[in-house]
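Forwarding these from the shared drive since the link keeps breaking.
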Amino acid sequence: MQIRILVVDDEPDNCEYLKLVLTKEGYEVTTQTDPTKTLDILKSADYHLVVLDMMMPQLSGTEVLEQIRKVDSDIAVIVATAYPNVDTAVASLKAQASDYVKKPLEPAEFLATVRNALAKKGLSKDPEADLHRAIGRTIRDARKTQELTLKQLARRTGLSVSLLSQIERAESSASISSLYKIASALRLKMSELFGDA
């Protein structure tokens, strides 16, 4: 399952930074600099987590969080602020924020907070999907390094172009036999296919 995160922050640089950090971890990220559009975005697709800036010009993070809770009592929400204080922390927790964090956000701590907030909702990234992505990435990188097309790799392995393409895009899990044929064709050890997984 692809975990979708909405980042709401009036500073475009903060949005881009958080998108980069979260996308690298495999999350699907949408950003929004206008807090008044938050509910429309949440209604347009299934999101699992909102990262919400506290201090925004049109609406405060607390106001946005209260609006979110009127339509969705379950979505995880992390409130981020450069100016933490007791009042905003209490208001956020009253409106059922999953967490309240201080900016600037340190990537490792922030990602741990995100994982924790998702885990409380019974959501975690699928380790099996991560493995399929790592295998697909390794195969694609090795194939491109050797300047082979999918068709050429198909000829070497006896596997179909569509199956190889699905394996590279992590849309299909490969059998051990298929992985062995691919590793042999790319002159890789089986263990090398698993990359950094």
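-- next protein --
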Amino acid sequence: MSSIHGGFEARLPTPFAILGIRTEGDALAEIRFLPKASKALAPQNRLAAQACAQIRRYLVNPEFRFDLPLARRGTEFQRRVWAKIAAIGPGRIRSYGELAQELRSAPRAVGQACGENPFPLVVPCHRVVAAADIGGFAHSDGGFQLSVKRWLLLHEGAVEPEGSPRGSLAPRMGGNGTSDIAS
């Protein structure tokens, strides 16, 4: 069934992209951001339907917490990074540097692991930002991928639009002038 649907068991339209959802047996194997011009595809199995339902709940309520079985993916280091990312609550952000320090690694290595995350939204890598701006997303520092990250951070209230015509984003500032980055 996967091959006739481009490898996905569902393609869910959202305000920021079409989400390609791939399952393997009883586990979610991948969520991929596809261009909005991609064709929607109704869920082809129970798990794909469950993933679509949970994503819709998140789109209505950014505080929603996902509960989906995930396929075992990535290296040991990537899984450690993804576990740290999964612990970041909705509406909160952490920097690559903060996570790197906790993992005794380098910010670039954390960024690379973020880019390899096969479960965006469920493992919310969009909540990891650079020290001075929102950083990159899915191995990209601009264009479509970064517009998805901006949309997700705005949806969660983690950042606010600045006055720039490009709609640049900065971390929401706390009352004491420090950025509201979770510790």
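Residues 3-60 form one domain. Residues 84 and 102 are 9 Å apart (CA to CA).

- D.
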